[in-house]
TrEMBL record:
The keyword Lyase does not apply. Residues 1-337 form the Peptidase A1 domain. One of its GO terms (biological process) is proteolysis. InterPro entries: Aspartic_peptidase_A1 (IPR001461), Aspartic_peptidase_AS (IPR001969), PEPTIDASE_A1 (IPR033121), Peptidase_aspartic_dom_sf (IPR021109), SapB_1 (IPR007856), Saposin-like (IPR011001). This is Peptidase A1 domain-containing protein. Keywords: Aspartyl protease, Glycoprotein, Hydrolase, Protease, Signal, Zymogen. It holds the Pfam family SapB_1. Residues 1-24 form the signal peptide. It comes from Hibiscus syriacus. Belongs to the peptidase A1 family. GO terms for molecular function: aspartic-type endopeptidase activity. It comes from the Eukaryota. The lineage of its organism: Eukaryota, Viridiplantae, Streptophyta, Embryophyta, Tracheophyta.
């Protein structure tokens, strides 16, 4: 956090704010207003409270903006000589697999030869959880101010942004193989997000997609892989637990598939702007681990975004890795083309 330390200048500034001002008019007519000394209480935030009171009493908000638009910084008094206080707005973001906290800052940001003035950003001071510790954020490229034709094939399909809070757009039907599912026949809302690793959607729909590709819950596979030599009673208990785990959602919403069955699995496609964007089994299945302990994870994960933001599909890295994505801020649209 930044700290402001002002001495005599701040004292004078606060005096000008906290007390009425003696001023002259063009015709030299003097207006005299008596000054009153206010005893400073060093044990509370008198300076900040007095500033609020002055804004209300003397109508200073007419020049400074509405009271609710003003950020009041509570100042602490040190020996009537220094006034200091923290000036960072706090920031907290909750992700699907982690969270950060910190504060907002502003600076001129230079990207290549492009300078973005007064860019607001978040300085992260706390990143709880294992995600930011072990994850390797690398790969791909971000291009500002245009498109590199070496990164894509053919023409882009553009759709308008329907909500400015996200790069949100209307998505059409979801297809399994070449057959329509009707899951988004009436239209679905989607966003494209590089901060999401997988491809998420409402639980009820994702469950149908994973069922169609032959995926099952992660926990059931974990139990099966850890079977030991058991007696008949223990086997029955284990089988019951397997059935129970298959009905429970996985901790992060993932499901697994048979690594040997990719060749027989169908493609999954999304209709965007009237065009079909297809993901093959090799593209929507991630292999985790090696050898006998390897698992194949479906990238289709359940994530329910509550209203009014949701329900939402989030097309994350697995989608953006296959389809070159353009964020056209000037025209408020998103474009997709096959990645080169």
């Amino acid at each position: 956090m930044g700290t402001i330390i002002k001495t005599t200048t701040v004292t004078l500034f606060l005096c000008l704010l906290l007390f009425p001002i003696v001023f002259s008019t063009p015709n030299e007519r003097l207006i005299r207003i008596g000054l009153k000394k206010i005893k400073i209480d060093r044990n509370n935030r008198l300076a900040g409270e007095a500033l609020k009171a002055s804004i209300r009493k003397y109508g200073l908000h007419e020049n400074l903006g509405e009271p609710e638009d003003i950020d009041i910084v509570a100042l602490k008094n040190y020996l009537d000589a220094q006034y200091f206080g923290e000036i960072g707005k706090r920031a907290d973001i909750q992700y699907g697999t982690g969270a950060i906290s910190g504060f907002f800052s502003e600076d001129h940001v230079t990207v290549g030869e492009l300078v973005v003035k007064h860019q607001e950003f978040i300085e992260s001071t706390r990143e709880p959880g294992i995600t930011f510790l072990v994850a390797k954020f690398d790969g791909g490229e971000v291009v500002f101010g245009g498109m590199d034709p070496k990164h894509y094939k053919g023409e882009h399909t553009y759709v308008p942004v329907t909500h400015k809070g996200y790069w949100q757009f209307d998505m059409g039907d979801v297809l399994i193989g070449d057959q329509t599912t009707g899951l988004c026949a009436g239209g679905c809302s989607a966003i494209v997000d590089s901060g999401t690793s997988l491809l998420t959607g409402p639980t009820a729909i994702i469950a149908q997609v994973n069922h169609a590709i032959g995926a099952s819950g992660v926990m059931a596979v974990v139990w099966a892989q850890n079977q030991l030599k058991l007696n008949q009673t223990q086997e029955r208990i284990l089988e019951y637990l397997n059935q129970l785990c298959e009905r429970l959602p996985s901790p992060m919403g993932e499901s697994v598939v048979d690594c040997d069955g990719l060749s027989s699995m169908p493609s999954v496609s999304f209709t965007i702007g009237g065009k079909i964007f297809e993901l093959t089994p090799e593209q929507y299945v991630l292999e985790v681990g090696e050898g006998e302990v390897a698992q194949c994870i479906s990238v289709f994960a359940a994530l329910d975004v509550p209203p009014p933001r949701g329900p939402l599909w989030i097309l994350g890295d697995v989608f953006m890795g296959q389809f070159h994505t353009v964020f056209d801020h000037g025209n408020l649209q998103v474009g997709f083309a096959e990645a080169a």
